[in-house]
Amino acid sequence: MTHKIAIIGASGYTGAELIRLIATHPNMEIAALAANSKAGQSMAQVFPHLRHLDLPDLVTWEQIDFSQIDLCFCALPHKTSQEVIRELPKTMKIVDLSADFRLRDPADYTKWYGNAHGAVEMQKEAVYGLTEFYREDIAKARLVAGTGCNAATGQFILRPLVAGAVIDLDEIILDMKCAVSGAGRSLKENLLHAELSEGYNAYAVGGTHRHQGEFDQEFSALAGRPVQVQFTPHLMPANRGILATTYVKGDPQAICATLQKAYADEPFIEVLPFGETPSTHHVRGSNFVHIGVTGDRIPGRATVVGVLDNLTKGSSGQALQNANLMLGEDETAGLMLVPCFP
Amino acid sequence: MTHKIAIIGASGYTGAELIRLIATHPNMEIAALAANSKAGQSMAQVFPHLRHLDLPDLVTWEQIDFSQIDLCFCALPHKTSQEVIRELPKTMKIVDLSADFRLRDPADYTKWYGNAHGAVEMQKEAVYGLTEFYREDIAKARLVAGTGCNAATGQFILRPLVAGAVIDLDEIILDMKCAVSGAGRSLKENLLHAELSEGYNAYAVGGTHRHQGEFDQEFSALAGRPVQVQFTPHLMPANRGILATTYVKGDPQAICATLQKAYADEPFIEVLPFGETPSTHHVRGSNFVHIGVTGDRIPGRATVVGVLDNLTKGSSGQALQNANLMLGEDETAGLMLVPCFP
Amino acid sequence: MTHKIAIIGASGYTGAELIRLIATHPNMEIAALAANSKAGQSMAQVFPHLRHLDLPDLVTWEQIDFSQIDLCFCALPHKTSQEVIRELPKTMKIVDLSADFRLRDPADYTKWYGNAHGAVEMQKEAVYGLTEFYREDIAKARLVAGTGCNAATGQFILRPLVAGAVIDLDEIILDMKCAVSGAGRSLKENLLHAELSEGYNAYAVGGTHRHQGEFDQEFSALAGRPVQVQFTPHLMPANRGILATTYVKGDPQAICATLQKAYADEPFIEVLPFGETPSTHHVRGSNFVHIGVTGDRIPGRATVVGVLDNLTKGSSGQALQNANLMLGEDETAGLMLVPCFP
Amino acid sequence: MTHKIAIIGASGYTGAELIRLIATHPNMEIAALAANSKAGQSMAQVFPHLRHLDLPDLVTWEQIDFSQIDLCFCALPHKTSQEVIRELPKTMKIVDLSADFRLRDPADYTKWYGNAHGAVEMQKEAVYGLTEFYREDIAKARLVAGTGCNAATGQFILRPLVAGAVIDLDEIILDMKCAVSGAGRSLKENLLHAELSEGYNAYAVGGTHRHQGEFDQEFSALAGRPVQVQFTPHLMPANRGILATTYVKGDPQAICATLQKAYADEPFIEVLPFGETPSTHHVRGSNFVHIGVTGDRIPGRATVVGVLDNLTKGSSGQALQNANLMLGEDETAGLMLVPCFP
Q1: First to last CA, chain B
Q2: Whose CA is closest to A191, among C200, C197, D176, C36?
Q3: Where is the Semialdehyde dehydrogenase NAD-binding domain (chains A, B, C, D) (predicted)?
């Protein structure tokens, strides 16, 4: 059976990435594409790399006949997303890629995003979309909230360690190196090639990045007590990829064994042999996560490095993985693309 | 039916690209991988981005039991390739990605490559692998010679124009901008990141690039008289992509119409509306070719720009397309991957 | 004697490049910096790489006391530049980096820039700022018009050849590869790192780029009859550098000899030995031009490749070189910086 | 007075960088350049960006008449450096850029570099070349050992904090992002553009990088007891720049004040206002260091980010700064080049 799919927010990078993935999905058909600021244009105009695909032209989301749609991806900016989603049919399956439904507590949302939430009821309904850890809930959900790309990376590394109590919960540092597509297709000076190529910098230093809210929520729930990690993102001169260097205290071998056991049956998560370290080059354009553990020369300290592609496993690939579960499809359908190297 | 595939020369970029593509092919199984210098290693060691695939370890080509193999890709350097292929079973289908069987005349081979050809009989047997123009011969061939990546790019632009007699055959300039993966995984100073990033230069200026031999052979045969193009390659700070800016004399509209007609039914070749120009960004990681025609302000002159990914359509994608024909598979199987942008 | 310098338009790349160069000039002092949209900010805020310099804060140009200023650089966008310059003191020396005074004929200006010129009298007064060819006029000028960066590159290659009548004037092709800083610090989608890195494309194909107007004006004047070149710019994934591959008809050795003779005494222009080709890597961040000539295998055709740094020799370095002449300084003062490689 | 300078190891990046800097030095003349593997070549062949300079051709170091030389820079690989330096005149001033004389204890040298030291007496004589902290000793020294580039970066951040006892000495993490030129002009697969661009990875994880030996020696000496930092380098897709994100425990404001006080009079070290963070873009090609301090949301923790250009301040700029002191020149001569941005 072919599922009819709509994408709202199709003129951004995560929208384009969804289309790239769905184009090879055996049982999905893109029935409608919306981008209100570019309604009327063809996708070939907005994203010439999609030129060969037979795609519907862009419309406004209000023009879509949702009665035909089996599942809708919403790839809008936060705040806009909640305003649109609350107007959509209440029975339609939705995967939201924005930040709007990631935080369960309206106060947390307001703390990190600055405005009061405009769809508090739906916020309660939404399931957090970190597939490997919320699989059963996602399969039954109507509304799934895609995670932050940094939040996903950090959790793949840390959730089994927090849950397994093999690390000191008060001494966790996440030094993250993030490719520029994570900032979206937005026109900002620091995202220009001339400003970014050949250099790099930290930003949102000191625990102020919004994905911190997801870490607080998830790790504290897992541990049963408040957990605060130190998280510093860095902007990299590269288009795809997040690498998280994680400094933890605990037995390195136990940490590696915990991760290997946790992900032994996961199709997308590869834990490397102890002492090896991964590279973003080797997951580019794919839905895979590579994680490597090394012990420090200082006993009782380990460095865990994890990588993924922020647009795929960190966003649109995760979203499709969740949609597969919600529609009863094979979880990996459309997602087994091999990383594009070199 | 699943075809059993061998790849000789699996430790280079074109070998890795073949594996990337075949991994999504419905009817191919990689049965053997050879790389004599790295025999004994796993593919995860040589190319960590292939880690998740269940691939055979590398062996020497002499260790392969070819009686089990339906088709063998040979991704070796030129000269080595002819030496290996002449030892392989004479009944096995072979797609060669090297330069060894591209030129039909042994004297041409020696002129451009410097050594006498070591398998002259096979040189006669080989079919030139530019799929869209040798499709029927390829389907019946035992040995197919993959084209040069620059040679493919120039021919996609120029063959219909030469055949259609819509341009001046003595006034053709091909200014080509080539990504660095075309040079392979070889350790040369000018291929280092520190030497290449953030700058660019011409090389093999004056008609000395070896792919010139293919242009001479193919365009002269098409035109029925000697044709010499001017071809200047440039090394670009990018990993994938060739862009050919072609300067020709003729009626721009007729040129565009000729190309649009020639490629109307081709699944991988997109001729843009008159006046639009393509970008390598929009074919990256895919088997597609984009071509655009613009008229110059000087009447009777046109600029035709064509782009493709040198590793895919320029090499391994073309090879798989040919293998599909040789094995009776759908020509596009494993090749409909959407370009990876951004 | 120290000359007091003002820069209007100091928040763009050419403004910053002027400051970088002047900082090492023995006899210049930056007395005022204007950028109306960022007035009130410090240069450290706008360009942190200038943080260590003791520079005046940004003001509006109207706030500058020009009676103190010996020479003013104007690094504004075209059209704005003429509107500002016509209000400045009529006795002050000015080097304009915009396009506003490059074309001597008001009709030409309107043809290429779309609007009527707002300072026609000054347009007549302005001297075209290609230093090596207008040196004496520049030394006596009050208002000098900096050339386009592409226009400079093409003219360094072609002026001696046009003047020396060693090439066919009706068969000149300039295929130019331009780094992104030439587009300035403007917020456009195609200038984003995610859109530009790792790929390239032609633009303004067919003779529509505005620098074409300078080629028409200068080459026609030199030849004493209309000359039209074919000029195609390409946007490169690099921040600094223009490489022009020039296809001409003539005797390659004579072409090389003509260029070597023309530039034998020039401090910034290096003509390579016959058969060598230059690279943008080797002029990055400097005021040097490298030119190389190669003969094609087709007799009577030559390929001339020239490179420079668009921000330095193509813009701000040229401007400083002209200012040196206007102020009676050594022409090379502040300009002998060695290229920054790697 | 003009000092006559020799450079041994002039065909590598640090050699070229020395020449770039010395070219603008008022009182230095390059009298001899050696590179044994490329003896007989001109510098224009080895580094075309130096083509315009009037430089001696490359010779072997044995061919240099050292009686003419006032100071010799030695830019050889470690181990080779000690073997050459012990053969040089014992009265000549030498600045060594290798690792051979950085560690004072022969056992430490053997531990980190694997071989017994071949010039133990000179190892004792050598002064550690971190200019800002060994200024007086350097001025009197005959042999100065340039520091590791990572070692310099980490020490600029941490020395005042260790000495001032404002941080917990057992809880220091240095997460360092290093540009590729730090690996030199060596032909390794992971340094190829196709392997490195658009991605990044950690290496030498767990405290195994050789610059760790310098941290151990220097911080332990400063603290008067053993200090071990955790240090993880990462290879970046960029040519110049090191960024160190340093996680420390202590009062953030006190940490910032300590750094600002320590560097108040230093010409090359800029401590940013509290809460600002630096970028490698803004020191590229220069001798400057930028440091920024931010407090974490977790009380008592601070993140200190420091940046420098590994080839300049991290190596050749530092070497020239030391040579200036040794020769009685102004310490900043030849070193005030403004960073090259964009």
Answers
A1: 36
A2: C197
A3: 4-141
Check: CATH 3.40.50.300 for D3-147+313-326? no
Give the residue numbers of D marked as catalytic. Answer: 149
CATH 3.30.360.10 positions along chain B are 150-309
Is the Cβ pair B202, C342 closer than 8 Å?
no
Least CB–CB distance from A340: residue in B281, B336, B340: B340
Contact D281, D299 (CB under 8 A): no
Which residues on A lie below 8 Å from D279 (Cβ)?
199-201
Give ranges for CATH 3.40.50.720 in chain B: 3-147+313-326
Per-residue model confidence as pLDDT tens digits over B154-212: 999 999 999 999 999 999 999 999 999 999 999 999 999 999 999 999 999 999 999 99
Residue that the structure tokens 């996609």 belong to: B156
Chain D closest CA to B33's CA: distance in Å? 21
Angle, vertex CA D104, rays to CA D103 and CA D109, nearest 5: 45
**Cβ partners under 8 Å of residue C161, min gap 6:** C167, C248, C250, C255, C258, C259, C304
| Closest to B6 measured CA to CA, from B26, B34, B43, B36 | B34
Q: Which region holds residue C95: left if phi is over 0, alpha if psi is between -120 and 50, else beta?
A: beta
Chain D contact present for C44, CB below 8 A? no
Minimal Cα distance from C46: which residue of A? A189
Q: Which residues of A are less than 8 Å from C193 in CB distance? A: 180, 191-193, 195-197, 237, 239
Q: Which residue in B149, B178, B256, B340 is the catalytic one? A: B149
Query: Of the candidates A104, A135, A154, A158, which has an alpha carbon nearest to the alpha carbon of residue A266?
Result: A135
Whether domain D150-310 has CATH 3.30.360.10:
yes
**Each residue's pLDDT tens digit, B68-121:** 999 999 999 999 999 999 999 999 999 999 999 999 999 999 999 999 999 999
Give the pLDDT confidence of B298-338 residue by residue, as tens digits: 999 999 999 999 999 999 999 999 999 999 999 999 999 99
DSSP D338: P
Q: Is the CB of B225 inside 8 Å of chain D's CB atoms?
A: no
> A74, A149, A178, A256: which one is catalytic?
A149
Show residues of chain D in contact with C288, CB under 8 Å: 52
Map tokens 């992900």 to a residue. Answer: A263
Q: Is A95 helix (H, G, I), strand (E, B) or coil?
A: strand
Query: Distance, in angstroms, between A84 CA and closest chain B CA?
Result: 26
User: How many angstroms from the chain centroid is the CA of residue B295?
Assistant: 28
Q: Please, which residues 165-224 of chain C have a Cβ atom closer than 8 Å to chain B?
A: 173, 175, 177, 194-203, 205-208, 212
Minimal-distance CA residue of chain D relative to C179: D342
Q: Which CATH class is domain A150-309?
A: alpha beta
One pLDDT digit (tens) per residue for chain D, 342 residues? 799 999 999 999 999 999 999 999 999 999 999 999 999 999 999 999 999 999 999 999 999 999 999 999 999 999 999 999 999 999 999 999 999 999 999 999 999 999 999 999 999 999 999 999 999 999 999 999 999 999 999 999 999 999 999 999 999 999 999 999 999 999 999 999 999 999 999 999 999 999 999 999 999 999 999 999 999 999 999 999 999 999 999 999 999 999 999 999 999 999 999 999 999 999 999 999 999 999 999 999 999 999 999 999 999 999 999 999 999 999 999 999 999 999
Instruction: Judge whether A149 counts as a catalytic residue.
Output: yes
Distances (CA, A) of B286 to A12, A286, B7, B240, B337: 20, 14, 20, 10, 6
With contact defined as beta carbons under 8 Å apart, do D301 and D248 qualify? yes
For this complex, say whether ipTM is above 0.95. yes
* B193 with D180: Cβ contact below 8 A: yes
Q: Does the CB of A273 have a partner CB in chain D at under 8 Å?
A: no
